[in-house]
Amino acid sequence: MADRPLNGHRVLALVTNYGVEQDELLVPLKRLREDGADVTVAAAEAEPVQTLVGDKDPGEVVEPDATFDVVDPGDHQLLLLPGGTLNADQLRLDAKALALVKAFASSGRPIAAICHGPWALVEADLVRGKTLTSYPSLRTDILNAGAASWVDKSVVSDSEGGYTLVTSRTPDDLDDFLGAVGKALVGS
Known about the structure:
Blueprint: E1 10-15, E2 18-21, H1 22-34, E3 38-43, E4 49-53, E5 57-62, E6 66-67, E7 78-81, H2 85-91, H3 95-107, E8 111-114, H4 118-123, E9 131-132, H5 139-144, E10 149-150, E11 155-158, E12 165-168, H6 174-187
Parallel strand pairs: 1-3, 1-7, 2-4, 3-6, 7-8, 8-12, 9-10
Antiparallel strand pairs: 4-5, 11-12
């Protein structure tokens, strides 16, 4: 349909192959695609992505569209970093994933991270001067990495430092998060 608000916009979601929180990947994929966005799921390996529910129970399996080493960040307008403790912890240790995260920030394109997703931003030194939110256990990590502040809100958008960062706390905040992601994407 030509009247979908995100027609012509491209989103890149970065995940590892095990441990991404199911709803933090699948709900954004579904909603962004329904709104017309072209979403690419890039994983560490060209193997199926096993999502988890609550960091412990197996969720749905997702086939990635690409891997970190072949995806071109320049082909996308917004970067999505879903959470899941295991996923986020592995993602922040992957040099190829961090290079993609840094490419988005340095080009001024928006990044959206939910729950534990901001760990990659901490590792990439991209939270300095930003106001953001996350899963509560990341608060100290984020503040120690130079964030201006951490707030307990369903969604926070911050355009300081040359790029827009949209953050959210948990799957319970997905409606607010995806509203802000849509606004950041249209504005990009």
